[in-house]
Amino acid sequence: MKTTIQTWTPDAWRSLPAAQQPVYRDDAAVEAVLAELRELPPLVVPEEVDHLHALLAEAAEGRRFLLQGGDCAEAFADCRGSIIQNKLRVLLQMSVLITHGGRTGVIHLGRIAGQYAKPRSGDTERIDGKEVPVYRGDIINGLDPSQREPDPRRLLEAYHRAAATLNHLRALVDGGFADLHHPEHWDLSWSREDAGHYLETLDQVRNSLAFVQRLGGLPEHLRTGELFTSHEALHLPFETAMTRFVPESGRHYNLGAHFLWIGERTRQLEGAHLEYIRGLANPIGLKVGASMTPESLRKVLAKLDPGRRPGRLTLITRFGAGRAEAALPGLIEAARSEGHPVLWSCDPMHGNGRTAAGGLKTRAFGDILQELQEVAALHRACGSRMGAVHFELTGEPVTECTGGVEGLDEAGLQRAYRSGCDPRLNRSQSLEMAFLIAQMIR
Ligand SMILES: O=C[C@H](O)[C@H](O)COP(=O)(O)O
Ligand SMILES: C=C(OP(=O)(O)O)C(=O)O
Predict the structure, then answer these.
(1) Which domains does the chain have, with CATH numbers?
(2) For the CA of 390, the nearest ligand
(3) What is the model's pLDDT at position 262?
(4) Closest atom of ligand 2 to CA, residue 266
(5) Listed residue (312, 229, 255) closest to 46, CA to CA
(6) ipTM, two decimals
(7) Which of 23, 122, 300, 414 counts the most CB atoms within 10 A of its CB?
(8) To test ligand 2's pocket by mutation, which of 259, 287, 292, 323 has the most ligand atoms within 8 angstroms of CB?
(9) Which residue ranges of the chain lie beneath pLDDT 50?
(10) Is 280 buried (19+), middle (13-18) or exposed (0-12) by CB count in 10 A?
């Protein structure tokens, strides 16, 4: 049965095909956990969600830039102070570089405090000669091959880990951690020969920050960088349990995060995921790969943004280096001709995955940069704007993507490969990328 926005309910998706959902052995156990989740306090409040919506509307109108980033698959074990701090720090440092070079205010949106579910290409994989179910994110099963059975208790664990992560993030932001004047926050292991040009820019940024400090510092509301949370709305029973009716606005919000997005593998027009997300009052995102046609995009836009509201919908393109030219101009035209004021984001990670000689999944810094440059240029040529970027990154010194100033090659990937799913930029690669984005969008 077709539902309209008036008849939409958080559960209406249940009558539609839902891709990428785990199959649990014990339905009663799942239901008991969901009942508990429905009673637990929300992680965010509608006012914050609405505030983000307003900021995204400004970004869609060209007055701000959105930086979205964080782990591919957030791990329960990474719910630790130092790891959370490092993630926040790298995002804020990227933001300072983009603000300084790009001359634009930056919205910080973490893939954090709930990015626990992963869509996968296959259902099983071979490990040590044995066929096992794939890892689908800590909210569903464990990375260790012995823990691949979906376990409903993980839904509660996900809620609690997200709450602890968000609690720490809020304390860091409120406590002044986001104040980036401290020189130790900028320590990088780059040498002058490798990174002369970047280090000069960094000196300029430090000088500007010192100047602002001498003037008495930034006003409170600018000093503490606000951080919003986001994750893929993949596990629909969990997301439904986090959805609450807000009587003041008469709308439903998912209060498990400020922003939710639908992935490339679950964006079927008549599928459960679009049905679920279309009724939320949150600002939402949609991943758009090369298989999206202008015709399909028109239908998707009519479903997700019938009110044509700036800030409502962020389209996150992810084509792969060399592939945007064939797809993007038609999509830009489709959105424009239908009057949807979408915010265009570029995710240069998900179209650029490949397998290194040793078997590890990786992405090359050069491919990531190429896609960003191509997408920024195509937007400009079409009279549009790349107003956002979306990265898988971490503040840890991991070795998952090749390239960058430190010249990581495939042989070096083994050294500190920690991602449970896809490769992330490390801190040094993320900062280098931010320098380049600042130049690109100036
Ligand atoms: O992050 C995105 C997807 O979950 C990931 O690319 C899927 O990886 P797979 O193709 O190895 O399943
Ligand atoms: C799965 C993801 O991306 P995509 O849907 O674009 O493949 C992701 O961003 O985690």
Answers:
(1) 12-173+229-441 (3.20.20.70), 179-223 (no CATH)
(2) 2
(3) 98
(4) 5
(5) 255
(6) 0.98
(7) 300
(8) 287
(9) 1
(10) buried
